[in-house]
Structure prediction request, 463 residues.
Amino acid sequence: MDNIKDHSNKETIIQGETIAAISTALGNGAVSIVKVSGEKAIQSVNEIFNGFDLTKAKSHTIHYGHIVDKNKILDEVLVSVFRSPKSFTKEDVVEINCHGGIFVTNQILELLLCHNVRLAEPGEFTKRAFLNGRIDLTQAEAVMDLIESQTSNSLQMATNGITGKTSEIIHQYRNELLECILKIEVNIDYPEYEDEEIITNDILKPKLNELINKLNHILDKASVSQVMRNGIKTAIIGRPNVGKSSLLNALLREDKAIVTNIEGTTRDVVEGDVHIGGIVLHLMDTAGIRNTIDEVEQIGVEKTKKIAQEAELVILVLDNSRELHPMDLELIEMTNNKNRIIVVNKKDLDNKLNYDKLKDYILISSYDTDDIEKLEIKIKDIFHISSVGQIDASYIGNARQISKLKLAKQHLLDALDSLNNNLPVDIANVDIHQAWIELGEIIGEVNNEELLDTLFSRFCLGK
Prediction:
């Protein structure tokens, strides 16, 4: 049973360099925060702080004073002190709240870097919090999700991650797997223990089926979770002058795209985000698709076709006042295998469109708010957003975590297949153990230095 170990250094406080970075968005504002973390954080800030002696400050206290470069005052500040281990990184942490000018904030940071401090790498504060056991990997990833959340649903999923609710599900699942692994290994290594339950194929099969069903419950929600977390890349396509730009403006509730009666007005992609019932549509109004000799317009048409192929949702716009064109039929055929909504626009004009060749469509006017709301409802129906109630911890939208859940499920299916073929339970145990490892990588219980470096490099400097 010696192989059942977590190879993690999370319980050891990092000893070494003290780091600093600007934690607030760089720009002119009321306040900026320069964060410092490490063994020499308090001492280093104290060397440039004119006020209370920070080396004598209690944890979780704020002190008024000035940041000084020799005898020159750089700024009037408030300094917050958080002593190890009661801080985000579990190291000594100091936050300098200064005035929010770009120049003065950089001056303070540069001054710190001359006092036994180095510039933090992207995500290094959160990485230290993880390595020091303050948070696990799902909580670390949720920090970035919280920063990037754009809707109440994505915010709730991030909150579930930060508060550890998502981790609890994974821990509970791993414990059930570990119980199976240990019982099997006791049977193998210590057969003389008569009081221990003998794990047979018939006992293990129902348990594996139960565990697979629990994983399916999470994975069934994965596509919806990812939509709520990341939004939907949406392409609005169609022939020139069918009302694509008008539809984009209507969805955005602003006049972002130029609308004229001149064909070829939109030559490049016009983008914008719109919030619809807890999700974000990343809208792209594309150039009208037609055969053209205009070189610039042709580039736009080719870009439109590429975007349509890459989009997660295609809104194909047709014109109620014009007959179906061969190019319309080509676009319908081209998008047959996509998540697609056919929108017939300009319902207020005389009908000339042949609807017999359309299976499913929405008849609208881009200038009718009720029609736009019908389209939004249709979008939510396609992605099953309308069925989502309260967002609980089983909604996991992180791609890395989902991939690990899928790998864990496959190993359990392989284990079940071994049992169905009447192979010994110790053969199945190899896959069960691998499933346990995959789940451990979700929460960071299995140390993988390359994974951590890649993951935390996506964070902003001040996190």
